[in-house]
Amino acid sequence: MNGFPRFIAVGELALLVEFGDRIDNQLNARVLALAAALNGTTGVSEIIPTYRSLTVVFDPLTVTCIELCERVTLLLNQLPATHSARRRWRVPVCYGGEYGEDLPALAQGHGLSPEQVIDIHSSARYRVYMVGFMPGFAYLGGLPELLHTPRRSSPRAMTPASSINIGGQQTAISSVAGPSGWHLIGRTPWRSFDPLRQRPFLFQAGDEVGFMPITPAEFARLSDKCRAADWYPEPEVA
C-alpha cells in the first residue's frame, strides 16, 4: 500500500510505525489496534498514537529496535480492520453566545441556522483520533461533511479552555486556554486536563465521544460541580 506500513527509527529509544499519509478512519483503526496489541510488551515503556502512525518508546537494554520491528511485523498481520471503542463519553456543551462566538458566522457560511448546526454537531458520534498539541487537547474524527469548514483566516489570540471547535474536517475539545485558528462553537464545563487530578487527562485516543447540548444555567451548575476536587466525569465502559 504505497510503501506502508513502514518503520522509522526515532533516535535510539523509539520506533515510528507509519500506516499512511492522510487522515483516514481505517488507518486510525489500525493505529489503535496496534497500540492495543503492543500494550504490556516487554521493553515497551510508552505508546503514542496519532492519526496515522504510532510511536513506540522502548528500553534498548531490554529489546532491540530490530526485535521490536519483528514483533510489530507479526502483529500487523493479525490486526482487526475496525475499531470498537471501549470508552464512550457524552460531553455536555453550551453552544453559541458567549460560549461559542463563531457559531453564527459558521452557520451562515453553510446556509444553515445556528440551531441546525447544533443539531448536526450533537447528533454525530466521534472518535478521538489523537491527543496532543496542548496537554489533553482531543482531536476528533467523524465530523459530518455538512460542517467541514476551513480554519479561520485570522487565528484567535486566545481561546478559552474546554472550548468545542471546528477546523477543516474535524472537531476538537480544547484543554487549556491558548491561540487557535479553529472556529469556536461552544464550551463544555468539563476540564479535559487538570494537573491536580489523580487522573489528569480525561480523553484517550480511541474513545467515542458524543455531545449533549445544555443551557447556560446547566453550564454554571456543572462548572461548580467540576471544580470539586473529588469529582471526575466517568465514561461508559463497553
From TrEMBL:
It comes from Klebsiella oxytoca. It holds the Pfam family CT_C_D. One of its GO terms (molecular function) is ATP binding. PANTHER family: 5-OXOPROLINASE SUBUNIT B. It comes from the Bacteria. This is KipI family sensor histidine kinase inhibitor. InterPro entries: CT_C_D, Cyclophilin-like_dom_sf, PxpB. Keywords: ATP-binding, Hydrolase, Nucleotide-binding. SUPFAM superfamilies: Cyclophilin-like (SSF50891), PH0987 N-terminal domain-like (SSF160467). Residues 5-203 form the Carboxyltransferase domain.
